[in-house]
Amino acid sequence: MLNVGVLGAGHLGKIHLRLLNQSEKYNLVGFYDANEENAKRIEAELGYTYFSTIEALIDAVDVVDIVTPTLSHFDCARQAIAKGKHIFIEKPITNTVEEAETLRALVAEKGVKGQVGHVERFNPAFIAVKDMLDKPMFIESHRLAEFNPRGTDVPVVLDLMIHDIDAILSVVKSQVKHVSASGVSVISDTPDIANARIEFVNGCVANLTASRISLKNMRKTRFFQRDAYISVDFLEKKCEVVKMKDAPENPGDFDMILQNAEGIKKQIYFDNPEISENNAILDELESFAEAINNNTKPVVTLHDGTEALRVATMIINQF
């Protein structure tokens, strides 16, 4: 088992603490939180060991799980890497692309592993269809959330949209060519609703909308590609796959047949991939343990996290 410590015991940090404590791949050594009063309350109520300094916690573990506010990601990760520790770091990887690039260089220099917490990669609905996503050419994504003061210290692009940016970059095997975007600040000092259009070199276009001032929650992405439409509902953990193939010469009474202007006939059929229930956060943490133990590439590398941040930054710079 890998000895692990958590930096940051806020809302998400407490979830990480609970899951790491129950994981068979980790031994939870303890945690650090900048709010001493909060930290001592958690220690008393939940029994996790509180370390009074970041340095003491880093020295005591093999893996550092960084769940602090984004502004401190870089400093926390840099300290851990300098001590030769593996790092799991919540999204977004850092506050700036330059910081992310520095972390990538430090990890390579020290020979340790790093993974970024883009949890939607572990969403069972996305996992169920990922292998079917063969060169999507148009993508439409909506990530809408009801207002929550937590997270409003960063633009909605870094708070919400970055989930979809990472998922899209993981399936579109092409460089980003152009980004255009607009955003509006309604309640916060930073944009609360944003729309972005990402154009790729291979001709794929992704249209993304994110809002944290909606009346209902929605997390849905639709992928359109040659002879297929694939929809992923990240919130409900459901997917829909509609495919087309050449129509048979003698279709059955219940076959769905389309004929275009050129007279070409296609048969429409539905594919319902099996979706396995999981805990995505636990899976991402345990996948990192497997990458360390087996010396394999993490599912979401620091490079992936950097590229998602790079595109997010390009979007924010349009506002």
Automatic annotation (TrEMBL):
Location of the GFO/IDH/MocA-like oxidoreductase domain: 156-216
GO molecular function, one term: nucleotide binding
Membrane-spanning segments: none
Gene3D superfamilies, A to Z: Dihydrodipicolinate Reductase, domain 2, NAD(P)-binding Rossmann-like Domain
Domain Gfo/Idh/MocA-like oxidoreductase N-terminal: 2-118
SUPFAM superfamilies per the UniProt record, alphabetical: Glyceraldehyde-3-phosphate dehydrogenase-like, C-terminal domain, NAD(P)-binding Rossmann-fold domains
Name of the protein this chain belongs to: Predicted dehydrogenase
Native species: Bizionia paragorgiae
